[in-house]
Amino acid sequence: MSYTTLHSLAVWLKNMILKRLKEATSSRHAALESRLPLLDADMSRARYLQFLKLFWGYYEPLEAQLQTLPYWPAINFDYAGRHKTPRLLQDLRALGETPESIQSFARCQQLPTLASKGELLGCLYVIEGATLGGQIITRHLNSNLGLTPLTGGAFFDGYGAQTGDQWKAFCAMLKANAGESAHHDDILASANQTFETLDQWLFPSYPTPKGGTP
pTM for this structure? Predict the structure, then answer.
């Protein structure tokens, strides 16, 4: 295969990654979104707090894992200002939790596998993409529960007015790193696994006891 052909293929792969990700994850994304009660008109503060605890239990160990990965220089992406755990801590404290109670929350043990650059990119696609939907949730939290980013809604507010620009910057980085087909396979698989592990953590399915439903 000639250099020109290889270059054209790389360009095509870079331009296609977002479309392929959206198509590959659409069913898992929609399934998870449909189960979340965050936009329900009758969602209470207690129910909201319950889900904040669960999100903290997923993001805290996930972001601890992200910090240990060796792929950041290779993808040329600074995640330092994008950490979600500090915003969750801010919300939990605003809603009455103490540092001691927060540390006692359960943490997810079944996290996505992040053993390659592509798998890191796929995971980031999910958690960065979630900031876009968070803007809708933020408005709902304010109108239904009276919550603002300062009083318990910081996590879903994401980057505030900069959310759109931050997403564009992430997409540019993703496309720049998606020029090999092997990376595409890892990216797509990891994005789906991230949705799957988050769904299982938020909505665990318990095995039916022998003899049927209790």
Answer: 0.89
